[in-house]
Amino acid sequence: MGRTIKSFEVIAEATTPFIYTFEVGKEFGGQAVDDIIEHDGVFKLFNRHDELITEINLPVVSVNYEYPFAAVN
Q1: What pLDDT, on a 0 to 100 scale, did the predictor assign at position 7?
Q2: CB of 10 closer than 8 Å to CB of 17
């Protein structure tokens, strides 16, 4: 089993550049983000029904992963 993206930060720009964090559990576009998938440098945000909320194609500053663990007996 692989790693899961928990959050990522991008450089966004309005009047001045700023860092914005997208994360699982945080709301975006009026919907709670349940899953984040990265494919070819594009981050895709999905809701709890596995419906695409949006695609993010901005410069990424960092990505925070969650790694599954296996119980050792």
Answers
A1: 97
A2: no
- Residues comprising the chain, all counted: 73
- CA angle at residue 30 from 41 to 63, to 5 degrees? 30
pLDDT digits (tens, 9 = 90+) for 26-72: 999 999 999 999 999 999 999 999 999 999 999 999 999 998 876 66
Residue 35, burial from CB neighbour count under 10 angstroms (0-12, 13-18, 19+): middle
- Report how far residue 13's alpha carbon sits from residue 53's, in angstroms, rounded to the nearest whole number: 20
Quote helix, strand, coil % in the chain, to nearest 5. 0, 60, 40
